[in-house]
Design the sequence.
């Protein structure tokens, strides 16, 4: 057990006074390790608030560099960082906000070969990726490694969020057994995204992450939260574990990770871009 | 008989931009056929060539996933609310 320093007590005082957190909860946060996949629209606000709250170790995964068209929603980056790697850009900002925590950067693209080795060091995984191949890879890796996964997806004015505790509640494949064929569902790049929608969902992910670490409140396990900014509505749908789920069901058929990207137009498009 | 159907953003192009439409049908698949009459092209987006609902689309009747009810044969009654929820991957 470590003791909170005077500076830590001061820094985190507004949440330490919450009876659900207290000094014990703050110590839990400082000892926790969270991996954020994607430092885009979802990962930016999520990482910022988790750093502020004193999550002790935050891992950042992204292979991209900051582009000017990211800054409308990816608020952790800044104009002067256009052209540098997103993980380095985010690390700089997070440590300016809170030098009390550790930031680990993984400037790479997740694949079936590297993901298990990366997630094994973390307590909670946050999926802020921007494409189906990564989302299915992350889901399957978290199920196989029994890691809690905080999921959200966004498009235009819409957002979806759920929390996956493998084998306790439904996983992403229980909900959507297989990814859509390339071209059938538009990406944010094609369809657009209102920056604040990313903010709302990214902060819902941060909220779920904090609640999981603090073991307080009710998580979005077995629930799919649907947000629409235009109608300003939040709806919660009940979702269930699928006994026939290919990865977390009774007779799983997926025992090894799949790189969908090989079959997807995404990489082709990026190559041609 | 009137059933409220929530249309997800990617399909609103087919429903003249409407996020909610009224339709009818005794079962979910009948409802989809009714929708197709009014909004041609929508069935193809929801169902595969064999007529089964696509695996990256979920349909909820009154907030319950039809895969855990009777699938596309799930019965509908007046006043039910149906939500079509596709997977979205943006981040």
Sequence:
């Amino acid at each position: 057990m470590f003791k909170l320093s005077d500076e830590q007590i001061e820094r985190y005082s507004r949440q330490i006074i919450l009876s659900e957190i207290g000094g014990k909860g703050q110590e839990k946060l400082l000892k926790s390790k969270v991996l954020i996949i994607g430092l885009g629209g979802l990962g930016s606000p999520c990482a910022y608030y988790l750093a502020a709250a004193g999550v002790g170790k935050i891992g950042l995964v992204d292979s991209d560099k900051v582009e000017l068209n990211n800054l409308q929603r990816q608020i952790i980056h800044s104009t002067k960082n256009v052209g540098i790697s997103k993980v380095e850009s985010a690390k700089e900002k997070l440590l300016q906000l809170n030098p009390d925590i550790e930031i680990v950067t993984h400037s790479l693209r997740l694949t079936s070969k590297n993901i298990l080795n990366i997630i094994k060091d973390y307590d909670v995984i946050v999926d802020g990726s921007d494409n189906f191949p990564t989302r299915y890879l992350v889901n399957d890796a978290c199920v196989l490694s029994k890691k809690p996964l905080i999921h959200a997806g966004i498009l235009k004015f819409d957002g979806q969020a759920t929390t996956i505790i493998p084998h306790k509640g439904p996983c992403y494949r229980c909900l959507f057994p297989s990814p859509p064929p390339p071209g059938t569902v538009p990406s944010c790049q094609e369809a657009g995204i209102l920056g604040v929608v990313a903010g709302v969902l990214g902060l819902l992910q941060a909220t779920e992450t904090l609640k999981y670490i603090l073991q307080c409140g009710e998580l979005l396990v077995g629930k799919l939260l649907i947000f629409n900014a235009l109608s300003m509505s939040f709806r919660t749908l009940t979702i269930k574990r699928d006994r026939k789920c290919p990865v977390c069901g009774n007779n799983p058929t997926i025992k090894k990770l799949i790189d969908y990207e090989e079959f997807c137009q995404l990489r082709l498009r990026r190559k041609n871009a | 008989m009137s059933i409220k159907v929530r249309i997800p953003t990617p399909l609103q192009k087919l429903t003249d931009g409407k996020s909610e439409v009224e339709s009818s049908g005794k079962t979910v698949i009948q409802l989809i056929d009714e929708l197709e009459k009014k909004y041609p092209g929508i069935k193809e987006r929801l169902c595969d060539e064999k007529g089964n609902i696509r695996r990256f689309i979920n349909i909820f009747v009154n907030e319950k996933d039809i895969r855990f009810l009777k699938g596309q044969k799930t019965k509908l009654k007046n006043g039910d609310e149906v939500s079509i929820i596709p997977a979205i991957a943006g981040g």
In short: The two ends of chain A are 51 Å apart (CA to CA). Residues 267-273 of chain A have pLDDT under 50 and may be disordered. Strands of chain A lie at 33-37, 57-61, 102-106, 124-127, 149-155, 158-164, 223-228, 233-238.
